[in-house]
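Exercise 7.
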Amino acid sequence: MADPILELVSLVKRHGGVLAVDHVSFGINRGEFFSIVGPSGAGKTSVLRMIAGFESPDEGEIRIEGRSIRGIPPHRRPVNLIFQSYALFPHLTVAENVAFGPKMQGMATGDIQSRVRDVLDMVKLTRKETRLPAQLSGGEQQRVAIARALINQPAVLLLDEPLSALDQQLRQEMQGELKAIQKRVGISFVCVTHHQKEALALSDRLAVMHQGRVLQIGTPEEIYGNPDCRFIAQFVGNSNELRGMLIANEGGSGLFRSHDLEDGQSIRVHVSGDVESHKPVAFVVRPERLHLSETIERSAFENSLQGRVEKVLYLGSELQYTIQLSRSVQWTVQVSCLSGRQKVWPVGTTLFVQWQAQDGLVLPL
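Solution. The predicted structure, written as tokens, is:
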């Protein structure tokens, strides 16, 4: 790791008889936007609260800039946590909310005013200083919360589901704004979210947690394109799946046979990692990697399965087809329609779903 500012070393946290965090270890680089994703109960919020100091680990250590913060109370740690609700003081103006921390620390009035101006400029709220929180939009309230955290000049900024209180359109707008703020200030952000697309859009790297453990850490491209296990393939983004067995594997090129398909057809696959032949496995492929046509294009695609169109959804930039491949298997296929000339096949049409072997993954069950 180039320049770790935050290190978690074999953290363990138990809530009663439940092992909420199971020997979690990773480091976060200086100036990095790092997200922790996972379903409810994965342990991600417990990790965030231990970094912030609101919970103490039962085992393990947390280091910031190489120094252990064990036993240091939350208000003395070089971190700030932004809660889902933002926790703004409703009776204070924007400037007063932002100035609250330095004022409590006894900083000189002139220095406080200078810092307030600087951080409000960073978050683009320079003309909103005198407004109350109720007079702001949800996105503006979030930026006030960020400014209030940044004025304390933390080494690490912690965010707990930072965009969950916003409607969908504003949430998408604020994704870009949040990333831009992080790059401007150059502080490491650690974000906890169960929203996978959001984590992919915001993060330099992310960790996927499940049942208290970290399953994989990597860039968004690595996590989405090369998931280490079936759970990640299903949780991060959408994927289509067949269960079956790898019946041949020679130098990374293999054959997969699924018991989910009535005809027992073999599928050519690219095999990476420790996947054993003649053991139960899952084949997964992303919806956007698939191609639909009325005829088999053998020269362009190595795999082809015949199916029937069950549903068509128009989503603006894409068409989403539900294809019935067998009695028990439906796949989703995403087809770009940005050109405006994409043919739309109606429900009931028989089509071929096609793809290259390298576009799918074989993962242990």
